[in-house]
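**User:** Once you have settled down, spend some time on the protein underneath, comparing sequence with structure tokens, and judge whether sequence predicts the tokens.
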Amino acid sequence: MSLEVGILFDSTLCIGCKACSIACKQSHNLPGEPNPDELDAETFTIVKEKDGIFCRNFCRHCLEPACASACPVGALHKTSHGPVLYDSAKCIGCRYCIVACPYNIPRYQWSKQSPLVRKCDFCKELLAQGKEPACANVCPTGATKFGIREDLLAEARERLKSKPDAYFQHIFGEKEVGGSSVLIISAQHISEFGIPVPKITSPLPDLTASYLNKVPAIVAGGGLFLAGIWWLTRRKNQVKKDERQSEQKKNSRE
């Protein structure tokens, strides 16, 4: 059994108190209001609302993260116990991770002289102390639950099965882009909150690799094509040159 940790967020239990967002700010010593409309470089989690129903948005900590795959220097990596972590000492500021993320999560400190990429880190300092993330610890209703991912996945399946009318029958994060450490269940499709939901189940690094594997053949094919064009052009010019020389010789004999 995998001991990879995760978070199960149950939107049907969320009351919109925003305690998770406030606790995240306090735990990471982040400035600014606790729950702006969208994530930013100083806000790692937000609670979104639609028609009196609430849903959280924060880093999914993908099982096979596209951000880590896209990073050319290894500044982002998936840890064996779950979180996807960022090493600012390695970052070169290329922001490929921001482009690669299918959930549009990482943010960049554009206003800083030495900007960093910013996102949820599952409260890595608390995890190192054997504690749970701040957001899960303060949730008054159990809407945010921390635990072993496999256990949380089993619990999510049981909730959907036991109350089929209460939930949209899908566990967000179970299979999207290979799955994630964050699982979300809700009474409605979470895209209705403006939260991205990838339509593919294959891990993005696998798809990237399949395309990159074709690059040598494409480049080689392109090279052969250009070589063919060059040969035809050269041959055409040579034929014209020979025809002119032949015509000149003919005229000189006359």
Notes: The longest strand covers residues 5-10. The mean pLDDT is 89. The longest helix spans residues 204-253.
